[in-house]
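Reviewer 2 asked us to include a model.

Predict the structure of this chain.
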Amino acid sequence: MEHPTEHPAQIAERRRLAEADESGVPWRRWGPYLSERQWGTVREDYSRDGEAWSYFTHDQARSRAYRWGEDGIAGISDDKQRLCFALALWNGRDPILKERMFGLTNTEGNHGEDVKEYYFYLDSTPTHSYMKFLYKYPQGEFPYGELVAANHARNRRDPEFELLDTGVFDEDRYFDVFVEYAKAGPEDLLIEITAHNRGAEEATLHLLPTLWFRHTWSWAGGTAVPGLREAPGAIRADHDELGTRRLYFATDTPTIFTENDTNNERIFGTRNAGPYVKDGIDRCVVHGDTTAVNPDGTGTKAAVHHVLSIPGGDSATIRLRLTDTELADPWQEFGQLLDSRRAEADTFYDDVTPDGTSEDEQRLVRQALAGMLWSKQYYHYDIERWLAEHGVDPLGCDPSVRNSAWYHMVNDEIMSMPDTWEYPWFAAWDLAFHSVALSLVDIAFAKSQLDLLLRRRYLHPNGQIPAYEWNFGDVNPPVHAWAILFVYELEKHRTGRGDRAFLENSFQKLMKNFTWWLNRKDTDGNNLFQGGFLGLDNIGVFNRSAELPTGGQLDQADGTAWMALYCQNLLEIAVELAADNPVYVEHAQTLFEHFAWIAVAMNRIGKDNESLWDEEDGFFYDVLRLPDGSTTRLKVRSLVGLIPLAATSVVGSRLDRRFPELLAGAREFIERHPAVEALVHSRDAQGSGADGRHLFALFGEDRLRRILARMLDEDEFLGPHGIRSLSRHHAAHPYTFHLHGQTYGVGYLPAESDSDMFGGNSNWRGPVWFPVNILLIRALLNLHAFHGDAFTVECPTGSGQQLNLYEVAHEISDRLTSTFLRGGDGHRPVHGTRPQFAKDPHWQDLLLFYEYFHGDTGAGLGAAHQTGWTGLAAVTATLFRVVGAGDWGALREESLS
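Predicted model (structure tokens):
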């Protein structure tokens, strides 16, 4: 693999990124920072019982002002979400104006919350100089009631009832509404909206591009009231901080003005503050109530009302321009600028995508990264203020009030969200994986996201990283160090320069979090870690975040292995930093010793030295340690037992020459501690591997082969589209545990969950999940860098085909990528059995990046727009086109240069 050079200056988007990162030009100030759903979030919940879904509902959202953020369709805002723009629509039949995506709450859906719309993120550059979005809007009445009733009637073993199932798209009676944004400058946005009538008959569509201010003025300590007003051919927006903006539109189009204030009469049965409220435009357009809007043409929310009659098979286009400059002719060169930004986006992605990538793979990469970039949202949550508004003493840490121990947190940034509708809030380990995918196109933003959760306003004073909005005090797997190291090494490889300041700053804060893990999640101080659910929701026999029904505690194979990986990553960072500052050699030595003790502990547990490793099964399991000191292995073959494989790292041979004192210290430590020395010898230690490299792993070659034999068995973990989260063995042989007359069990469920554990809206008992697959691929590449080509295994198990570990990693990656690629029959596995996606030209090239995938078919499941960590598909589609069999090891050497 050739060492890359700087990207050519003639790539316009690269130039914009450089201007933003090096000169502070605000190219990222405006972007797709509106959520798809603000209602039903913890931030907006001021209930006594913490029932966020019922406190602020979809039905209320059109009439009730939000406290902490805004939502909308294909929306944009500035980076503090002061001024917002989005699209509203009405087909002449719906009972309400379509201003936001509709979906079911956690209790309404038979598999938890679920958006019931079809929309697609088609394109975006990192600076959002060009973006494209598609919404499919039915021409018939939107079946709100039918979707709720049909899903409510189904149980957890039934499939979900989707919008396509209602028949509302039959005979192509719908509009394809494309929204495109192009930046003429950092503060000058061109907007083109094109509606295609896919049906055979003429249909009327009301398009209402809407401009409004986030409601910031009526809360305690609020701001001055901003204003919108009519201006010649424009809506003028004046804001104390943002200054003046104008939304230009065709001069013969009517405008509608109201206030972004709550309709208290409708929501609470009390008097409104004024005659014009948030739902005024809905009441005017849908219900004909012209008294609901301000005839004087002023307010804090306004829309431009286009009524389009579109013949069957035809389209109509409108143009707008949102700018900070007063323009005599806002349409001059509009088309030329838009075409230029489209072409520049093409050039940018041609540069991102490796040579030899197929057209379908290019489409996958572009839509995956577009989804990642569209999922950047403004996230605002001042917990001390939020607690005070609940009438709670912020310093009281009342455990009955959600997140009360996190009163120090102030969130006020653009963040990468897991899913713009189902998960419109950050999650710690999701964000780490997001940053890896985002680093393919925007290293600076990726680094900023990784840094964010380590800042003092996020990281708890005790060192804990906040997990997710519903419970910041819960625990996600500690993958932050891995992601930071990945992004650092990628930038160093691309540019020849590593960002040592970023790495060192991260290391200091990560060590604080690492210490929190040592002190809080190792109950007995024996280097075996608990951690709770650790992001794997329902994977265990019991709810691993709750008190065990047996009493005692659960020593977790995955929790312990995550800590082993954490040690490895921090050790690698310390070695990198030691090149400039030898004080980090001592840190590296300490981390090596932590890793060694964890490795020993995984083989010693309880009074009978019961191990997390089961010699008979050749697999790692959680161990239940009972109050009487006895232990029981919970023999569920799942990702819990494969995470120890992920805890594998390799360091280049230059370590010997650069830091001989580190190797000498490691040898002395091993010789001084018989338990460590015995473990090293029992692992069939081979010393240095290929080209003198050093391997850090929790087991030796014999156990490696046994684990891989199970992982690569198509009757166990190896599915057609990646590594399953639970072995298929448990389909015929479910694991059961009997206690006090009650039976607890885990069986293979390749699709949705059949329980309500953690809300029932995700499933780790069979489906394929991209993030853990990526970590397993990384481990295999590291193992290949150490063992070389001579080390082969049967893949798939029982096939007679021998592959080296690079080839195994390549095979798993190809299976993951195939989830999204069109087969010979035009079918993409991700779309399941939906004929529209296989045969209809207006559907077949549209990709949805689901949360997880059917373990046997690859059909998408869970959150439908979780481009977040499933955006890693852009990595699997390109990785092995740029990393050859010998390249990964060379990269490990480069990390020490």
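The radius of gyration is 28 Å. Residues 557-578 form the longest helix (22 residues). We have added this to the supplementary material.
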